[in-house]
Design brief:
By secondary structure, the protein is an alpha/beta fold. It is built from ten helices and ten strands. A six-stranded mixed β-sheet has the order 5-4-6-7-8-10, sandwiched between helices.
Length: 249
């Protein structure tokens, strides 16, 4: 993330027609680097709260695109954790306090935990060198499960996937990419859908549409993924959530 300002400035110097970028830190850097080149955002949380656009109805400026925020994702992640492992009582949540939307996601998670009689433990991670210490801390707290909120430092991170497996944590990730690395399961907005629709935005802008006139929207799809199918059949059957058993049954 430290190189985003440098990379944003380099792209702007190339005088491209449109820039497509993923994640809040990248959009922050681009917003500072240019007010003229159209920017199409993908996998971005709360663009209004982050100050990228004026409003969803009238974004204004040079930024438009899609947000990966969908209602009730935090509650659904906790529900799936509880369903796959009914014995869990304490869940760690990896978050980044410098990302404004993580404050809202944490509040949603905290609210949902009360209905499920779960204790949730916030663990702040701002850089990759904090990951191992974070795992040491949560294991001392005897957590049984983990939720990883989406951010560049922790998303699709092999070290996190391996440490979660090593410590036998029931882990929930934000995207299917994490499952492809060996993570247990993921639930979140469909990144495939977000990128496909970003291409539509690019096409419209190249044909003359103004980004400030195009209302940003969220993904129409949420996706769930699991690597549980790779477990022995009897073990997979014991832990596979009801929604997935029905889907493949």
């Amino acid at each position: 993330m430290e190189r985003f300002p440098e990379l944003a400035a380099e792209v702007v110097r190339l005088k491209v027609d449109v820039i497509v970028a993923s994640g809040n830190p990248a959009i922050i850097a681009l917003k500072k680097a240019t007010q003229n080149i159209p920017v199409v955002m993908t996998v971005v949380a709360d663009p209004v709260g982050a100050g990228f656009i004026a409003s969803l109805a009238r974004p204004g400026g040079n930024i438009t695109g899609l947000t990966n925020i969908a209602e009730q994702l935090s509650g659904k992640r906790l529900e799936l954790l509880k369903e796959i492992n009914p014995k869990i009582a304490k869940v760690a949540v990896f978050r980044n306090p410098t990302i404004p939307t993580h404050t809202n996601l944490w509040k949603e998670t905290l609210d949902a935990s009360q209905a499920l009689a779960l204790t949730v433990l916030p663990v702040d991670i701002r850089a990759t060198d904090e990951i191992e210490r974070a795992f040491d801390a949560i294991m001392k707290e005897h957590v049984e499960a983990l939720i990883v909120l989406p951010q560049p430092v922790t998303t699709t991170n092999q070290q996190i996937v391996e440490l979660a497996a090593k410590n036998r944590l029931t882990a929930m990730y934000p995207f299917a990419d994490d499952v492809e690395l060996g993570g247990l399961m993921a639930y979140g907005s469909s990144r495939t859908d977000l990128w496909r629709r970003a291409a539509v935005n690019v096409d419209k802008i190249l044909k003359g549409a103004k980004p400030g006139d195009r209302c940003p929207s969220s993904s129409r799809k949420s996706s769930s993924s699991s690597s549980i199918s790779e477990l022995p059949n009897r073990l997979a059957s014991a832990f596979l959530p009801t929604c997935w058993r029905e889907r493949i049954g």
